[in-house]
Amino acid sequence: MLLSSLSTGCGASSSAETGIESPFESQSPNPHVHPLCRDARAIEVSAGETTPLQFSAADVIDFVAGAHAETLHWVAASDAAEPLDQRITIAVDSVGRSRFMDAMDKPLYHGATCISWLEIDVEVSLRSSDGAVDERFLGTAYAVDGRIARISALASGAAVAQSLTERARSRAADGAEPAGYRLELRFSRHGVSGALHASLPSEATDDVHTPIGEVLLAYLGPVACDLFDAAIALDEGEVGVTGQALLDRFAALSPLQIEWSDGTRSELAASFTATHAGACLSTRPDAAAVRVPGTLVLQTADGRLDASYPAALVAGQGEAVAAGFVWVQLDDNMILALGTPGELGFPEQSGEGFEDFALEFSFRIDAEDVLDASIVLIGYALNDCTDEIALGEQCGRYTPVELYSGTLAR
């Protein structure tokens, strides 16, 4: 067996009552529904009772319960390594208790919104076609909108089988011992998806205060998605759009032009390639959206820009995702991590005299496929505190300077 055996979770029956022993414990959903809320009040509800969330436990059980067959994709430890795929069946049975969790609107700071949710006690089993995975544990399924339900479980590093530990070590740069594991399962009417992560020290030291980071070991479904999103096929969608429609909208944009801040224009070759044959579905009330992860490639004929960026195509409904628009979003790490001009896609010599660099990026397509897009390379120069420093400038501070600024248009 890949894992040893699986233990009890928040709201579920104890292992002593059921005979199920496991290194995994169902993770309390409260911090992961909204970490800024102080407390929640549990209200027992029957399966068919409609909650204040406008759906019942029976509505969720309808798409969560039963056997779900899916592919488990093990992430390769290096570019040269061959990925391993296994067919796996996830079976879920309701064990009878459901609770409406009233968040009671007690945020930790003024203005935060507390989100209530529904909990359902379940028993989960996982079995791969080759028998390498054969596990069972008690958990809690929870949902906030009736379209996606999540089950989360944790295990310590010492409690799992050696084969899983070796996989985790291979993903760590220094072969560090894993501190623990996090299993995420997400269910929708489109099927089951999820991920298995290992928690690893960021550096191999004996310091107990060493920060812990996570690496992705495996994912279920067509694509690895964010914590609260469900993986769906490219031709599926629930918010008025599919992943394939987003790819088609972007492909129809060519040819493009970029106008630089100095008034010159250049042809721009732009392409987007999906990472996997799937998309991610979010059903948050303020940002119900379909998201297609992939790679954005931008190349200008004048040679000023030549880069590929981890990115995503996003469209949907809600306050945070304006209906009718398609957004191209770069990975947060790509924007926030300061790099060299070359790392950000611009000529290296453009950064002479600057200490650090960053990228500002926006890209939006409206209903008529008209672009509202720009890309800016910013250089940061360190004030040297000489006598020539102008009054009001602060020594030791960085001054941002726009090195390149371009507006994209059709």
Fill in the keyword field for this structure.
single chain, 410 residues, mainly beta, 2 domains, eight-stranded antiparallel beta barrel, 6 helices, 10% helix, 45% strand, globular, disordered N terminus
Mean pLDDT: 78
How are strands sequenced across the largest beta sheet? 3-4-5-6-7-8-9-10
Radius of gyration: 24 Å
Please indicate the percent range of residues in DSSP E strands (runs of 2 or more).
over 45%
One letter per element, helices H and strands E, the order comes to HEHEHEEEEEHEEEEHEEEEEEHEEE
Please report the number of helical segments: 6
Termini gap: 56 Å
Number of strands: 20
Task: Supply the number of structural domains.
Answer: 2
Helix content: under 10%
General form: globular
Largest sheet descriptor: 8 strands, antiparallel, barrel
Spans with pLDDT under 50 lasting ≥5 residues? 1-18, 204-211
Content-based structural category? mainly beta
Task: Describe this structure as you would to a colleague.
By secondary structure, the chain is mostly beta strands. It has two domains: 15-221, no CATH class; 243-409, no CATH class. The protein is built from six helices and 20 strands. Strands 3-4-5-6-7-8-9-10 form an eight-stranded antiparallel β-barrel. An eight-stranded antiparallel barrel has the order 12-13-15-16-17-18-19-20. β14 and β15 form a beta hairpin. It is globular and about 65 Å long.
